[in-house]
Q: What sequence folds into this?
């Protein structure tokens, strides 16, 4: 069974998220949107679009979406078969926190790595 197939998102906290978003937009050209992040659409080696995207967001340092982790970041990993992977992870003794309800974006689950970092697993809807 293939486990992680790519990175679906990078999320991190900042003391001043508005200023940091502006810095990334100004100096690195990140197309930060009003919702606080950007989406990087995937392309092939020639620059042609392919299915897939990576989300990028900056949250306030007091945001709770990474709880129970106290880490300042969370990575979202794309997976091909979330249910099978979760079964394997539980069998291997991993700390699976919760499984979200399927949504228009796909299926999500969260776990903690051995150092307490929250990890998000995402099985996108077919074709995404």
A:
């Amino acid at each position: 069974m293939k486990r992680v197939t790519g990175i679906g998102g990078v999320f991190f906290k900042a003391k001043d998220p508005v200023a940091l978003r502006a810095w990334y937009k100004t100096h690195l050209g990140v197309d930060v949107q009003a919702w606080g992040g950007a989406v990087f659409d995937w392309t092939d080696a020639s620059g042609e679009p392919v299915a897939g995207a990576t989300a990028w967001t900056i949250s306030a340092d007091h945001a709770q979406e990474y709880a129970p982790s106290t880490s300042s970041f969370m990575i979202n990993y794309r997976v091909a078969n979330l249910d099978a992977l979760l079964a394997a992870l539980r069998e291997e003794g991993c700390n699976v926190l919760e499984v979200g309800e399927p949504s228009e974006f796909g299926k999500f689950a969260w776990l903690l790595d051995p150092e307490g970092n929250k990890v998000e697993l995402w099985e996108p809807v077919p074709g995404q």
Q: What stands out?
A: The chain has one domain: 4-44+55-124. The longest strand covers residues 49-60. The chain has a mean pLDDT of 93. Residues 21 and 76 are 19 Å apart (CA to CA).
